[in-house]
Amino acid sequence: MSILLICTGRDPKVWVNAIKQQQPNVKLYVYPEAHDPLEITYAVTWKHPKGVFNKYPNLEVIASIGAGVDHITSDPQIPKSTLVTRVIDDQLTKDMSNFVLALVLDKMRNISLHHGENKWSPKSYQTLEEEKIGIMGLGVLGKATALSLANIGFKVSGWSKTKKHIDGVTSYNGQKGFKEFLKNSSILICLLPLTSETENILNKELFEQLPKGAYVINVARGEHLVEHDLLEMLDKGQLSGASLDVFRTEPLPEEHPFWKHQKIHITPHIASVTDPEKVVHQLMENYKRLKMNKPLKNVVELKKGY
Ligand code: NAP
Ligand code: GLV
């Protein structure tokens, strides 16, 4: 039994060090170094080359090093019998809710706007109680973000598949609750997982149902957003601006129109980034559980896709 680490776009060395520190004797291969595919039962991954797992007949678990698993589920060649797990981590959750809070306050108090103008021109602003925050997705990250915003006095509502009971947060669910939810979102935050149901969900039809001048924050995945619909809605004034942390192509290509758009605020997928030292324990605990034939933690429901 051995572990395969495939870590595209992130430094594998920090993961190797963290794993070795936790379990010095573990047999670990870093893709694409030479190894016997028959030995591999557990893969720790971020953005693997599509189809690669077909070469591993004894692979039992694919563990995402992030909260999202779309980089795994989007591979149609993932063996049906393989379990997929994800990371749930307090630091990752705190980082996300703090990041969104920072964006919301920045937008509300026009801080970046003043900075960009380079002139003495005070703007009026909404008070905390006047802004209506809508969060799409009330899972681990959405719920924590909703609570942190509600706790400082924002009016917060959330939308999810199933109804939630969260103190200070109005819960809408399913297609039935969607219209009402959108009507009540002057700042819309996307924290949905990327699935076939949520891909392209941030589109013109949705934007048109928001209050005029609404602001959009996407910290989930680039594929949630129909980019030309966003540009059109910004140019028409239906939306007042957007903060985007995630993109269809990452890094965002230099020539992309978002870079120069006055109303788009870009960050390079930094809302919450997994700290290997913080999560390696849960990855190794699952590996131990696999070897002992015990149920794993943080298993993804592949039928739902998240
Ligand atoms: P999660 O715990 O799986 O929660 C997902 C939420 O979305 C749940 O509330 C779920 O509803 C809801 N949902 C899913 N499909 C839906 C649909 N079709 N209609 C309505 N609601 C739907 O996910 P999470 O841990 O909060 O993470 C969310 C996403 O954040 C990740 O998948 C990842 O893409 C992104 N992320 C981004 C960064 C970054 O740095 N930018 C970092 C980490 C994660 P139910 O509760 O009713 O099932
Ligand atoms: C980051 O985007 C994650 O899914 O953890």
Residue stretches low in confidence (pLDDT < 50, at least 5 long) are none
Bound molecules: NADP nicotinamide-adenine-dinucleotide phosphate, glyoxylic acid
Strand tally: 12
Can you count the helices?
9
State the major sheet: 7 strands, parallel
Whole-angstrom Rg: 21 Å
SSE map:
Layout: E1 2-7, H1 12-22, E2 28-30, E3 40-46, E4 61-64, H2 70-73, E5 83-85, H3 90-108, H4 111-117, E6 132-136, H5 140-151, E7 155-160, E8 169-173, H6 174-183, E9 187-190, H7 204-208, E10 214-218, H8 227-236, E11 239-244, E12 264-266, H9 276-291
Parallel strand pairs: 1-2, 1-3, 3-4, 4-5, 6-7, 6-9, 7-8, 9-10, 10-11, 11-12
Helix pairs in contact: 1-9, 3-5
Bound molecules: NADP nicotinamide-adenine-dinucleotide phosphate (NAP) and glyoxylic acid (GLV).
Describe the structure.
It is a single chain. With 306 residues, the protein is of the alpha/beta class. The chain has two domains: 2-89 and 274-291, 3-Layer(aba) Sandwich (Rossmann fold), CATH 3.40.50.720; 90-266, Rossmann fold. It has helices at 12-22, 70-73, 90-108, 111-117, 140-151, 174-183, 204-208, 227-236, 276-291; strands spanning 2-7, 28-30, 40-46, 61-64, 83-85, 132-136, 155-160, 169-173, 187-190, 214-218, 239-244, 264-266. The longest helix is centred in the first third of the chain and has 19 residues, at 90-108. It is elongated and about 65 Å long. The mean pLDDT is 97. Glyoxylic acid is lined by residues 66-68, 274.
